[in-house]
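Reading a protein record of the kind used here takes only a little practice. To see the layout at work, look at the sequence and tokens printed below.
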Amino acid sequence: MTTGARGRIKRQNQPGLGLGATVMHRAHAESAVKPVESGEYCFDMGKARVPQQRTVSKYPKIHSFSGPTRNPVLELGSKPNRVFHMRNLNRLITFAIIAALGWGAYWFVGAQAAQRGLEAWFDARRDDGWTAETTTVATTGFPSRFETTVEELEIDDPGTGVGWSVPWVQVQAKSHKPTHLTAALAPIQELRLPNEVLDIVSNQMRGTVEVGTTPSLPLDRLMLEGEAMKIASTLGWTADLSATQVTLTENPTRGAPSYDLAITLDGFAPKSDKLAKLRRVVALPERIDALSAELTVTFDKPWNLSRVDVRRPQPRELVLDRLTAQWGKLAISGAGQVRVSPDGVASGKITLEATNWRDILKLADATGAIAKKHMPLVETALKAIARQAANPNRVKVPLRFADGKLLIGPAPICPVPPIVLP
């Protein structure tokens, strides 16, 4: 073997990385290195050797590990990643703090505005000569809602003679939707009308008001609901109601300030000495089975909450889509259209379908709804209509409104008072 070859072999058998052998004793160092054949491992790691022939016997710490292999390259690259994530976390925390502070400021400003607005309304009513008193006005509900409670509320409008007293009223609005209001009323209320006072007791009374976002706060929807109501009048009559609902919803399809009005009274049972006598006339039960109406009302101006206390919008047209009344064996349904003049005088026509019309006529006679002098003419007209009907007990009666009167054909039935909202 030449000196150069031996030198190369010796250099190949020196300890080191790459192709350098890890053999350390002299016998292996002086022996020729076997070339690596195709398919063999470069470091001959696939073959087992005795411990004294492996480098682990001399450098045991090189091969010892207690966990996953650490990659210094990846570890060097992970530090910027940690910095990047920490920066994002700091930004997120900063954003959350700013958002919380902003939301708190928004809620505080909104709560103060609601309370000041309500107090300003009371002050304005007192300046107008109203009685508008309350002991407490407080707004709570942070952070999800504005909840304003008014205690010992008493309102009287001397111009209309209408007043209202209630121990408490609670008005709520979602913080993110302040134009959608819900109200809960105390179970005991007093409603004062020009000629009587009503004491109202209920298991639950609530209302919903939805308004637009413009400064005038235009009314989009109003709903009033009551359950298990009892009403007592100073005139001596009482009434029980299983449930009642009144809904007023804006109808933008008609162009004018029009609203859909729906009224439903379930389990309505009016009681008085006069009604007891009327029920005996045609053997009627105490409870009216069904009483509901659906109509579209067009007003002379839109309803809004900002100026509703100045002058109420007045109806100018009533389109009755459905009227349903069922009391024992008596039933009435109807539809029609009535126009209202600026003075409140109605003109138009409504067609009623009356079942057991003879008993209905007896009730009208007993109550004085039809004047005695007009009764023969009205009865003759109804008999003529019944002769042409498929069912003589069910007739369709065209009613006309003209000159402040309600008529069947040429026969007047009763006067119609002006249709004017107080």
